[in-house]
Amino acid sequence: MASYKVLVRDVIKKADVLLEVIDARFPEETRNSEVEKDIIRLKKPFIIVINKCDLVSKEKLDKTKSRLSKIAPTVFISSKDRSGTTMLRHQILASACNIKERDILVGTLGYPNVGKSSVINGVTGRHRASTSPISGHTKGVQHVGAGSRIMFIDTPGVIPFDENDEYVQGLLGIKDVTHLRDPLGVALKIIEKMLAENKTALESCYNITIEAQNGSSVLELIGKQCNFLQKKGEVDEMRTAARIINDWQTGQLLI
Description:
It is built from ten helices and six strands. By secondary structure, the chain is of the alpha/beta class. It folds into two domains: about 150 residues, P-loop containing nucleotide triphosphate hydrolases (Rossmann fold), CATH 3.40.50; about 80 residues, Conserved Hypothetical Protein Ylqf, Chain: A, domain 2, CATH 1.10.1580. It has a six-stranded mixed sheet with strand order 3-2-1-4-6-5, with helices on both faces. Helix 2 links the parallel strand 1 and strand 2. Helix 7 crosses helix 8, helix 7 crosses helix 10 and helix 9 crosses helix 10. The two termini are about 30 Å apart. About 5% of the residues have low confidence.
């Protein structure tokens, strides 16, 4: 943790503009107030980049932007189809309009798996920053040229929350199902979130009709529909949980 903090603070000092990349599905959970305070204290301009916006509804995006734009300029990005990347490029140039004689150094900060490297690749238009579906893939500082006088500083993510809170890590995709100690508990958290925010999408994904609002009952319903049954006809809960977590982490379930 200490080494991550030192690295991040060093990037903040060196950068002309900072990007705080957050997950559109969890805008508050993936913001880092400590990092934001450090940026403001050093009087550095920063932009909140809301990535993975293709995984949430327009209504949710509008509410998020309305709230976060009061803190800093806010740009929506979908690394999947590169939407929003031109707007981000313009915002970076506008934020550093006082820099004339050299490249603008842009620091990218955020939690693991929010898609910092994918955002950079979206802006550059090519695969310049190394990416991986495995959380924590970026191991050290990399400088990535993006043209138009923009130079990115790509960094590993920060993990300011309790590393033992695997429910958060499962929801954010920081740990895949093979590395979770309690995949059933994580799957139930996903179901609860879907029931609260987009029950229709949950029904559509698994071709089911949900009557009860109980997470365990819904998990059993999904298991039966997927034919994840054990020898005595009982639902294989672990196999069903794995399917739900994988669908959530790969964007099959939208909120």
